[in-house]
Design goal:
- The protein is an alpha+beta fold and about 725 residues long.
- It has helices at about 25-50, 55-65, 130-160, 165-190, 195-225, 230-290, 300-310, 310-320, 335-345, 365-415, 420-450, 455-480, 485-510, 555-560, 695-700; strands at about 5, 70-75, 80-95, 95-100, 105-110, 120, 125-130, 515, 520-525, 530-535, 540-545, 550-555, 565-570, 575-585, 590-595, 595-605, 620-635, 640, 645-650, 655-660, 660-665, 670-675, 680-685.
- It has a domain at about 195-450.
- The chain contains 15 helices and 23 strands.
- The strands form five sheets. It has a six-stranded antiparallel barrel. Strands 1-20-19-18 form a four-stranded antiparallel beta sheet, with no helix packed on it. It has a four-stranded antiparallel beta sheet with strand order 4-11-9-6, with no helix packed on it.
- A hairpin with a 2-residue loop joins strand 13 (about 565-570) and strand 14 (about 575-585).
- The longest helix has about 55 residues, at about 230-290.
């Protein structure tokens, strides 16, 4: 510490004489003499500054510690309590406010409370109308019936099937087996088609029918041959009939020639199809053995291997990794031994997951697909050929029908001309023979139409469906004799659901009467008797007056010092003489308002016993951050020196002595002296009466020292007086 230097002190004439000593006049005289000498020194210093330079003069003037201001007064060093606190302003709120709503829809029947009335927890507030309650009671009754039905269903499952149910299941199984057999026979008949003998017989019948119709025409023509005794009209009618018969004969011959040509085309296409069917069948039996069924050899590959539950690549891949020749597995539709021979004993590799095949490396899946595609193409070609033949036959038939109609018309004219029964009989016989010929042609056409692969697939799918239904019937019959765990589980779940529905119905019935959720005060009522309400309709607002908060804000400088649970002293404008206790309940996120960041603060207030508060009252909350008791205090305006070496001017009998001190915590007015002073000493405190331009330039005011830290407060010109405490 530097050696204190003693300086005289001058008090201005207007300064109150508050020094508690008896030598005030002596100090005043000494101060006057000191002031005169000081003024002379200042004058000489200023003159020297002007001569040397404004800069050095200003430095000497500003840094001269011996300069004594006439606006300072002595203040006693005393002990007291230093408070570091935060103040926040806000208003009283009641956060425990609940808007009550019904959980169901209905009509208000009666209000049991009024606004402002105190209620207790569970007290009835509103009753709904009888219609709503009756509907809810009906829902409860229906839910009880549903629960009873579900319980009975579970009991039936646990008791097992009755004799009647078993008999019905056996009957269903028998029907399913018959349907499967019929579907299999239909598919077999379609695949086998008509035999060569049946086709030959049908063609022979057609030839006979055509001969019979020709004979009938000849007989009619012979009988109606003209003679000299015929009338001109009869001769003309017979000539017309003869011409019509000739035209019909020509049409029939042309139709026969065309039909023969079309039959040859159809036969050729049928032969190609039969070869492709044999090739595809050979692919299936060749790759997988003769154990494959006839049905397997006509099914499309995707359907076939879908029925088998595997793929070509999987079958051959599994065989490839098998070292020894396996025996044929009777459970599979193919011969494992044949497949093993392909994958191990052929001179060329058998490929899987491939798209091409050759003589040096064969791909079973590709060859099977290609054979099927060739078969499908042959079927399509045959179908197209048959369609062409059918179209040509229809065209020829139209010509034959036209000629036939001409013959019939001419015959009718002859009949009309010659009124003899024999002619009518011959004409009727001819018409009958023509119909028999048409029937024979249709029979041949039906037998020669090729089997459509679409029809085969449809019947195969139908057969698979019937087989699946037969399996289902077998499963149903088998399951009737045992308890089905899944059905029991589902029945149990149904009971649980029915029970939950019943609980919900009972809950809704109980919700027909609105009760207070807690003890409090009815703040508002939004409905009246007769109003319709739903889940979204507010009815009554109830608040809990025992839960009171004060909502305020603090700035960002103070918020870091606050903690949840800090004790708070709250004063109300309406109760200026009463301090209420509270704690910090919530600190919100900061909000920037016009460049100022403020943090919302919620304080839980302990309700006073003597008065009932109302919402909206203005409140001031004080939070004590730090409290130092029995501390040695001086005003901040008494501190001088620098930040690292703070000093005070201690009053002596002859003036003052500048003494270094150690500073502690401070507020806006007081600072704690850790060392350098003792209680009862007096120090000089600056009283700010005007603003010095140099002070504005270089800055003034105190630097606040946080509580508990050592150090000092550096001041240019100390701030004016002020109260301690709040921020």
């Amino acid at each position: 510490m530097t050696t204190p230097k003693e300086n005289p002190v001058e008090l201005s004439p207007s300064e109150p004489q508050t020094m508690p000593r008896t030598n005030i006049d002596f100090r005043s005289q000494q101060g006057f003499v000191g002031t005169s000498i000081l003024k002379l020194g200042v004058f000489l210093a200023i003159t020297t500054v002007i001569a040397i330079g404004a800069y050095f003069g200003a430095q000497v003037f500003l840094l001269d510690d011996d300069t004594v201001d006439d606006n300072r007064r002595p203040v006693a060093v005393k002990r007291g309590t230093l408070l570091d606190d935060v103040t926040a302003s806000g208003s009283v709120t009641f956060p425990e406010l609940e808007s009550l709503r019904f959980d169901i829809s209905g009509t208000i029947a009666e209000l049991l409370v009024e606004e402002g009335e105190s209620v207790f927890e569970g007290q009835l507030l509103i009753l709904l109308d009888d219609v709503t309650i009756a509907a809810l009671e009906s829902s409860v009754a229906n839910a009880e019936i549903a629960l009873q039905d579900a319980s009975e269903n579970l009991a039936d499952l646990l008791n097992g099937a009755s004799s009647l149910e078993i008999a019905v299941a056996e009957s269903n199984l028998a029907d399913a087996r018959v349907n499967s057999i019929n579907a299999g026979e239909d598919l077999t008949d379609l695949i086998n088609g008509a035999s060569s003998l049946e086709i030959a017989v049908a063609e022979s019948n057609l030839a006979d029918a055509r001969v019979n119709s020709m004979d009938a025409r000849s007989a009619l023509a012979e009988y109606t041959t003209g003679s000299n005794t015929d009338s001109p009209a009869l001769i003309k009618a017979k000539d017309k009939l003869s011409d019509a018969n000739q035209a019909l004969t020509d049409a029939l011959l042309t139709a026969d020639d065309n039909a023969e040509a079309q039959d040859e085309l159809v036969a050729a296409a049928q032969e190609v199809l039969e070869e492709t069917v044999k090739d595809y069948s050979a692919q299936i039996s060749g790759w997988f053995g003769s154990v494959t069924t006839e049905l397997d050899r006509v099914l499309e590959p995707d359907i076939l291997f879908g029925n088998w539950g595997t793929t070509v690549d999987k079958i051959f891949s599994e065989s490839t990794v098998t070292v020894d020749s396996p025996p044929d597995d009777l459970e599979t539709p193919w011969n494992e031994s044949i497949v093993w021979v392909w994958t191990h004993l052929t001179p060329y590799p058998i490929l899987t997951n491939c798209e091409t095949t050759s003589l040096t490396a064969r791909c079973p899946s590709t060859e099977i697909d290609d054979a099927w595609d060739v078969k499908v193409a042959a079927e399509e070609a045959l179908a197209e050929t048959v369609d062409d033949a059918f179209t040509a036959a229809k065209s020829q038939q139209i010509l034959v029908d036209t000629a036939q109609e001409a013959v019939e018309s001419a015959a009718d004219e002859v009949i009309d001309t010659v009124n003899e029964i024999d002619i009518d009989a011959l004409a009727a016989s001819l018409a009958e023979k023509i119909e028999l010929e048409k029937d024979a042609e249709a029979a041949v056409e039906d037998l020669t139409i090729s089997v459509n692969h679409i029809d085969i697939n449809a019947l195969a799918a139908r057969l698979a469906e019937k087989i699946e239904l037969e399996k289902d019937a077998e499963t149903t019959l088998a399951e009737l004799g045992v308890l089905d765990a899944l059905q029991i589980k589902l029945a149990t779940a149904a009971i649980n659901q029915a029970s939950a529905n019943l609980d919900n119905a009972r809950t809704e019935l109980a919700a027909a009467n609105l009760s207070a959720p807690f003890s409090g005060i009815i703040s508002s009522i939004s409905v009246a008797p007769g109003d319709q309400v739903s889940r979204s309709t507010p009815t009554i607002d109830i608040l809990d007056p025992s839960v009171i908060t004060v909502d305020g804000t603090v700035d960002e400088i103070d918020v870091l010092s606050l903690r949840l649970g800090n004790q708070v002293a709250v004063t109300l404008d309406a109760l200026p003489d009463q301090v209420l206790a509270g704690v910090i309940d919530e600190i919100g996120d900061g909000v920037n308002q016009q460049g100022i960041v403020e943090f919302p603060l919620t304080i839980a207030l302990t309700p006073p016993d003597s008065v009932e508060l109302i919402e909206g009252l203005s409140a001031t909350a004080t939070i004590v951050l730090n409290q130092i008791d029995n501390a040695l205090l001086v005003p901040l305006q008494a501190i001088g020196g620098s930040f690292t070496q703070p000093t005070v001017d201690v009053v002596t009998e002859s003036g003052f002595i500048t003494t270094e001190v150690t500073l502690g915590a401070s507020d806006d007015f007081w600072v704690v002296i850790e060392s350098g002073l003792t209680e009862g000493q007096e120090v000089l405190m600056t009283i700010a009466e005007s603003v010095d331009p140099l002070e504005q330039l270089f800055g003034g005011g105190a630097i606040r020292i946080p509580g508990g830290a050592g150090g000092a407060t550096f001041t240019g010109q100390q701030r004016g007086g002020g109260g301690g405490g709040g921020r």
